[in-house]
Amino acid sequence: MAWTIAVIFWIAGVAFVGSPRYLFHRLEAVKSNTAGRARASEASNKDESIFFFIETKALDSIPWWIVTITCVMIGLFLIAFGVIALVFSY
Questions:
Q1: CA-CA-CA-CA torsion for 42, 44, 45, 51, nearest 10 degrees?
Q2: pLDDT tens digits, residue range 42-80?
Q3: How many separate domains does the chain show?
Q4: pLDDT (tens digit per residue) in 14-38
Q5: How many CB atoms lie within 10 A of CB 10?
């Protein structure tokens, strides 16, 4: 029954390796939402508009390859932990 921990690590690892496309599209959606809120609050509240503009620029500075490398590295570590858990379960 200890092999189930290894399977859980493998499933989590595969999910992380496959998630960069979804995660980057989610970041793009948040960025466009934040840019819209910055434009909408520009006339009513300047401080809020500046805050949302800075947040939009911060999200804009995250390149797609950083998201991909981070997700793949986390996924590969989880898969490796699954192999280690499988080895120590026997």
A1: -30
A2: 888 888 888 888 888 888 888 889 989 999 999 999 999
A3: 1
A4: 999 999 989 888 988 988 888 888 8
A5: 19
Instruction: Find where tokens 């390149």 sit.
Output: 63
Phi, psi of 45, rounded to the nearest 5 degrees: -140, 105
Each as own residue / partner, the long-range contacts of residues 84-89 (CB below 8 Å, 24 or more positions apart, any chain) are 85/2, 85/5, 85/6, 85/9, 86/3, 86/6, 89/2, 89/3, 89/5, 89/6
What is the extent of the structural domain holding 50? Answer: 3-89
State pTM to two decimals: 0.73
**Tokens standing for 45?**
């509240």
